[in-house]
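Appendix B: complex inputs.
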Amino acid sequence: MPQTITDAIAELYRICAMTPPTQQERVVVLGELLGGYNLASIELASLTSEAASHFLMRRGAIIEPIRSANQEPLAGYIYVDSSNGYIFVERDDLLVRRRFSVAHEFGHYVLHFYPLLRAERPSDLYEPLEITEGLALFSADEDTDDLPEGRVVHAPHLHLPSYDQMEKEANQFAAELLMPAEAVQYLFTRYAPDCRGDDLIWRLATEMLVSGAAMRRRLRDLHLLPLVAAHLN
Amino acid sequence: MGLEFLRSNGAHRMRDDAIRPPLLDDSVEGGEVPKKEQPKMDYEKKIGEWVPIDTCNVALSATETHSPKLFIDGKDVGRTVAWLQTAEGFPIPVRLSEIGAVLMCNANRRLQREWHIVEHVVTMVVEAFPWDEVESFAAALQAEGFRLLPCQKPKEGLTYDFQEMRKATQNRSMDEMIRLEKQALVQAGQVPVLVDGRLDPRRGGFDEANTPVVGMIKGHYRNYLHDEGWRIYYNLQFGQRTPAFLLPQEHITVVSWYLRLDGTTSAMPDWGIVRLEIPEKFFRLQLQQDSTYIDALSRMVCEYRCKDKSYERASVSLYPIQRAEEILGATMTGGDQIVSRFYNLTQL
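Resulting structure:
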């Protein structure tokens, strides 16, 4: 069992038999990593948990509607049961946000749901195992620094960390997966002498196909943001 | 998916679109419309007192410390090489370009390249496609030395108007070129520098309170002058300038004026006139709004004017900028070669 998010990501690459991004190839191919876990990714316009539930029923993936489904607009949504896993994402969201939403839901799967599924014993299945998480829409402002919040719904007998902890971990996972520390450090060292402030953030963001806001948060986590600010002066 | 993204989405090759007119009105370079304020025309001379100001005989010593020693130019050489359609049928142009910027130094009357950068970029509106396909395409391009520049949809959303989509794509690529020019500005540090274009889009590349930076604008997309100003503008003689006016732009305020670089009378009346701008903060804090600086700077710009009449834009260009363009052009791979490689890689 991986001890940290960094370990979990390393394990993820091992399971998928893929190599982590390099200095030359920095865009993380998240789609292929999902494939390694047999997770399907679906883009729906006007995403809600109800829309996701209808989609799964039409596909025959579930035979009853998801119990917690409602009409709250969402950026991302994951449905997991003992045999299937589906990540939904709002189709009309910006591409960079769609990637982050998928990575966030993937984080829940890898860190919180997959270990449960592996640990589940047949005797535990006194009721069907079903976990969902819906990620609220991002702010309309592309550069907003606030992260949207999600909400996990699961049966009471399943032992999961607190909602707050799971959300924090899923966001951290998404950030570390899409923007590996080593790659960010390399890009920072390479571009910081020539690019200032927002231009540096923008440059790094386009190199890794993420939003400026996500890159800004990542630089802050890596204690590089004060250095970016210093370049402004 | 990877590099097959274009082909599997039904992309078609496109032949050279260079004959199309430039469509820059929405880009940061062309979008000269100040969002908040109008120009303050009585900054140097009161309205009613405007007359052409002759700069041919002013002493250059007034600019000695702050006269440009460095020159920056950028280049976006590219074209729409392919187009594809979204599931809804919206046309999506794919622009392939080499973008670059160069910093030239005048060292003892000898121009030399100080720093340069050239990149290969593929620009397209990506929002209408599945994220995993675009991601895979971007990663595969990166492995081949190209950078995918995701372009935002036009303001009103995706449109069936191909030219509108092409404009958005071209502007995105041009904006990225300006970012490279900003990198060149960072290299310039505190050394006085002249950049080919407006200062506002290049903000962040210089310190507006302390850097002696000059922007030179060749194309005039917007009318700033009042009637009296226009009458003076059309009658400017070589080396004459209009009085300076204050131009609040989206992010910074500049002091600006028009200067005639070329006195040829047979050309259009507005041909041969450039607009110069300097940061208002710098002019106020470092030069105490001394207009002899504007005169001397104007004269110096005239001294640097391009005298090579075989150069298409000689009338509105400076020799260092022309050289910068040539040197940058020589550093680039060249259109056909890069397009062939792209077609080969994407199997279009």
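Chain B touches chain A through 27 residues (CB under 8 Å).
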